[in-house]
Amino acid sequence: MTLKFARLGTAGNEQPAVIAQDTDGSEKYYSLAALTNDIDGGFLASDGIERTRTALNNRELPEISADGLRLGAPIARPGAVVAIGLNYAAHAAESGATPPEVPVVFLKPSNTIAGPFDAAPIPPSSEKYDWEVELAIVIGREASYLSSVSEAEACIAGYAVANDLSERDYQIPGAAGQWTKGKSLPGSTPLGPWLVPASDINTGNLRLQTLVNGESRQDSSTSDMIFDPATIVHHLSQYMVLEPGDVVITGTPEGVALSGRFPFIQPGDVLELDIEGLGRQRQEYFRAEAGSRSGASVPAHSNA
Ligand code: ZN
Questions:
Q1: CA 109–ligand 1 middle distance (angstroms)
Q2: Domain ranges within the chain, ordered by starting residue
Q3: How far is the CA of 269 from the centre of ligand 1 (A)?
Q4: With contact defined as beta carbons under 8 Å apart, do 66 and 46 qualify?
Q5: Backbone angles phi, psi at 232, to 5 degrees
Q6: Measured by CB atoms within 10 angstroms of the end CB, which terminus of the chain is less buried, N or C?
Q7: 85 C-alpha to center of ligand 1: Å?
């Protein structure tokens, strides 16, 4: 049975849930409150996914209604959000870069994580805000100095859709040698809608798409990745400790605005980001006002 882990409720008050097929084939939401307070590293590291499967099989989880509830990011705020750059050859080419021989690694602050349907702020002075659909890895077991790629595989709890929003003027001309300024903006890592267990999905050949106002921008496959998820986790573990609940985003395929083929994100634009089997995000963009702390928690229907 394929499970989808989700967090339902207002930002900061999300409740853990799982979506599973009932015997009649319909998808239903079940509360995980009896098993955990949240979908976080502690839950994943204590075999939470398998305990959920057992509880569902024993019909121990109460069905709940998700009607009208916000879907948050499917994992509680991680300790780290690690990102891989230029992991698709065609995207490296459109960015004017050579495909890397070892993974290009950068970090995003964990406070950039946003819900998959939250209204999304464009920074006040930004003119080059850009999308990046990415396969996100969620870590389920500590990864440190791993000796093999198969050990790394066992550290992956599951996968989700991520958008690695990037401000290109801050990332490249204003970067002073590294990308942090263009990759740290409030709300710049929408994650979800679901966390799908690694045992329930094969990530070798999944279609990834971005649509802007219904028009296709990115449309590729994870089969074009240069470094696959387990190779990435093995590599990262030589340089840092990945902890349960951490998120690793694995790079974006071609079709970003940086290529010059498309306009950058404008206020009022609607972005949809989709990965086969992992669901579809949808964000409406608005201009954050100078002086506002972030604008990242504006309700989805607002045009603030
Ligand atoms: Zn990226």
A1: 14
A2: 4-64, 81-295
A3: 20
A4: no
A5: -65, -50
A6: N
A7: 6
